[in-house]
Design brief:
This protein is of the alpha+beta class. It has eleven helices and 33 strands. The strands form nine sheets. Strands 1, 2, 3, 4, 5 and 6 form a six-stranded antiparallel beta sheet that branches.
């Protein structure tokens, strides 16, 4: 029987140190001259300085079955994996002679840092640091899964955290690496507060040894990052656990920690609790799925919309997936970008596949819109009289909004009558999904013409309604010498030398014996083609005046 005290006694004699690397090592001592040592599992660790660097001399005080082959395979796997959270590690079958027996040792580069529990207790009030720690932890374990490696005894004491937040794994006695197959027994079942209840029944090492403890640690980190007071209320500092106790796993949903974590109403934590419930239903840890098969995620960046047929770029960053594929494209990089030119609104679906075959879909929709256009915006004429209605119309296509300045929101296609008292600039503003369009036109006003006189050929017209001429509308200088009104039955003629104000004749004939119509040069120029000096032109003018007065 070899005791730790026997190992400490032998190590102080260079002659008993069989590994050449440690023969000149300076083993560290405390203030009372005693060797510093740390005991865990089947080993004792004694720190030392070799060539100015700090190393861990680790020696077994309890024999481990197939230790030579096991540690040789672990050493090779760690070397080949080149993962940043593994410490430099080498196994030596003959390292230290104790009571005439050669004991195996490992040499491992010393890592300065706090174990996970102590780091949490030192920084639990810094939510950002704990949240970052949780994300670093997920990256570490998914990397392990990618290499099909399990630590085997994942708990706070075997995870070191540097001051910069870098994670390191220590104590590799219970590790599983692919070269071990299913031939090596599961010799160390770990701290029970981190282990599935079925772990103690597990016979052989496998890559699934850590699945449960990984989820326990990750859930605790998320919970503490959300509610730091858990560290004090659960007395983490003085316990050999974080938040969960082994007893919680036997009545999970009625446990205090489950209730308090659920009360946080955090989607990530709720998801972890759901997975833990599923894990606890399993009777064999080899039936568990890795956490990333549930937590695989992808961040997709894509425009919400593009112009129909125009190119756009979709970018993505995935986490926890072994393979990513995109509909219409096929297999793509785990993180990358692709250029597409949708001709219609399109759903782009990413399919994530884990190392173990589980899948998850995430979809982003890119809408395609035609670019807008103002087809026309115009008035029926460029000139009008003051306060005389004028019609304007417009036609827009593929617009989100249309506004005519001063007249508010309008449909894409429409028309309206407007009156103006002075020259006016009309403006339409229309927006599609990409930009704003504007268009303008000007309508100019004309003064009413001055009619100097009126001379028309003799004509007869029978009226069955009132005829009204209002001088307020036109400046009329009557030159008509005689107007004869002939009733239907014989009666004396009625003459008038002036047409002024309102003349009403019911069912009578009006005879204008003599007269002419004259326009000033200025009035003629302004009226243009609106009225011509003809009988037809006179009729239009009269009709226009009477219509305006209704």
């Amino acid at each position: 029987m070899i005791y730790i005290s026997d190992i400490k006694a032998s190590i102080q004699s260079k002659a008993l140190i069989q590994d050449e690397f440690f023969k000149e090592a300076q083993f560290l001592k405390d203030s009372r001259g005693r060797l510093l040592s740390y005991t865990g599992g089947y080993t004792v660790v004694i720190p030392c300085i070799v060539n100015g660097e700090k190393w861990a001399f680790r020696c077994w005080h309890v024999p481990v079955e197939d230790s030579k082959k096991r540690y040789s395979l672990i050493s090779d796997a760690i070397h080949d994996a080149q993962l940043p959270f593994f410490c430099s590690f080498e196994y030596a079958e003959k390292g230290l002679l104790v009571k005439g027996e050669s004991l195996p040792i490992t040499k491992m580069k010393w890592v300065d840092g706090k174990n996970l529990k102590n780091y949490i207790c030192a920084h639990y009030q810094e939510k950002g640091k704990i949240k970052d720690l949780a994300q670093s932890f997920i990256k570490m374990i998914t990397s392990l899964h990618g290499k099909k490696i399990a630590h085997g005894d994942l708990q706070h004491g075997n995870i070191l955290v540097s001051e910069t937040g870098q994670l390191y794994l220590v104590d590799y006695d219970s590790m599983y690496v692919p070269a071990m197959g299913n031939e090596f027994p599961d010799i160390i079942t770990g701290l029970i507060d981190y282990q599935h209840p079925a772990r103690k029944k597990n016979r052989f090492s496998s890559e699934k040894l850590d699945y449960f403890s990984e989820l326990v640690i990750y859930t605790c980190l998320l919970g503490i990052s959300e509610k730091p007071d858990f560290v004090t209320s659960y007395n983490v500092e003085d316990s050999e656990r974080l938040l969960f106790s082994a007893s919680d796993f036997y009545s999970f949903e009625s446990s205090k920690v489950y209730g308090e974590l659920t009360a946080l109403k955090n989607p990530e934590i709720d998801q972890c609790l759901t997975i833990l419930k599923e894990y606890l239903v399993a009777k064999d840890i080899n039936d568990l799925k890795p956490i990333e098969s549930y937590l695989m995620s992808i961040k997709i960046t894509a425009p919400a919309f593009v112009a129909t047929g125009e190119e756009c770029t979709i970018k993505w960053i995935s986490s926890g997936a072994a393979k990513v594929s995109l509909n219409g494209v096929g297999d793509v990089d785990l993180s990358g970008s692709v250029t597409v030119n949708p001709t219609a609104t399109t759903d782009f679906t990413f399919l994530l596949t884990s190392e173990f075959g589980s899948t998850k879909e995430e979809t982003v929709q890119v809408k395609a819109y035609n670019r807008g256009k103002i087809n026309f915006f115009q008035a029926e004429r460029e000139y009008t009289f003051r306060s005389v209605p004028i019609n304007m119309s417009w036609d827009c296509s593929d617009m989100v909004s249309v506004e005519i300045v001063g007249y508010g929101k309008q449909p894409e296609v429409g028309s309206m009558e407007v009156e103006i008292s002075a020259d006016k600039v009309f403006e339409i503003r229309a927006k599609d999904h990409f930009k704003e369009f504007t268009k303008k036109f000007t309508v100019r006003t004309l003064p009413f013409p001055s009619i100097k006189g009126l001379r028309v050929p003799k004509f007869e017209a029978e009226y069955k309604s009132n005829l009204t001429i209002r001088p307020s509308r036109l400046d009329i200088k009557p030159l008509v010498s005689k107007v004869t009104i002939t009733p239907p039955q014989a009666s004396p003629s009625v003459s008038s030398n002036h047409i002024v104000g309102r003349t009403t004749v019911a069912s009578s004939k009006i005879e204008v014996a003599k007269g002419f119509m004259e326009f000033s040069d200025k009035a003629t120029a302004m009226m243009g083609n609106l009225f011509k000096i003809t009988n037809q032109g006179i009729t239009k003018l009269v009709n226009y005046i009477t219509k305006s007065d209704r």
